[in-house]
Amino acid sequence: MFRHPVPGLGTALFALSLAMAVPVASALAQDDAPKLTPAPENAYLYIGWPNDGERVRSPFKVWFGLRGMGVAPKGVAHENTGHHHLLINSDLPPAGEPLPADRNTLHFGAGETETRLDLPPGRYTLQLVMGDHDHVMHDPPVVSRKITVTVR
Fold first, then answer.
1. Mean pLDDT, to the nearest integer, of 81-94?
2. Coil, strand, or helix at residue 111?
3. Hey, which of 4, 13, 30, 141 has its CA 20 to 30 A from 80?
4. What distance in Å separates the CA atoms of residue 71 and residue 69, rounded to the nearest whole number?
5. Residue 131 near residue 111 (C-beta atoms within 8 A)
């Protein structure tokens, strides 16, 4: 075991190094926290068609509506813009995480504002979510109301 030649000085230096390390580690952790893209205050996202409770035949068109914000393709980091994602029978992901790329989360990274869905008969929930250039929800999240449709 190492003993400092001045009694108690080793302990004091160790305590000082710990005191200095904690703020540095805290600052580094804050830098690692995801930087969420701010959303405009008046952004409003909605599904223009189909309406909530609608009975549709497959395939059917889903029309996206957006006010107070622009649409830009994935990878384009332009202020007050994003691109659409359609959640099918799915809940919102945690804030700060990229929207998943799976069969329940459709990405419209080319800036599309409508799509055609071909779903088997059944009941489905649909919800739009705006994602930033990295497919992460804005702060605050820009999401539509969740609607339910029945495919005949």
1. 97
2. coil
3. 30
4. 7
5. no
Q: How far apart, in Å, are the Cα atoms of 4 and each of 8, 9, 13, 15, 23? A: 8, 7, 10, 14, 26
Q: How many angstroms separate the CA atoms of 6 and 132, rounded?
A: 58
Is the bond preceding residue 94 a cis peptide, omega within 30 degrees?
A: no
Q: In this predicted structure, what is the pLDDT of residue 97?
A: 93
Handedness of CA 54, 147, 76, 98 (dihedral sign): negative
Cα-only R_g, the chain: 24
In whole angstroms, give the CA distance from residue 28 to residue 133: 24
pLDDT digits (tens, 9 = 90+) for 15-72: 444 455 555 444 444 556 568 999 999 999 999 999 999 999 999 999 999 999 999 9
Q: Which residues contact 41 (CB under 8 A, 6 or more apart)?
A: 68
- What residues have CB less than 8 Å from 146, skipping those under 6 apart? 87, 125, 126, 127
DSSP 3: -
Q: Which residues pair with 128 in a beta bridge?
A: 86
Other Cβ atoms less than 10 A from the Cβ of 115: the count is 15
Residues in the chain: 152
| Whole-prediction pTM | 0.78
Residue at token pair 């409003």: 44
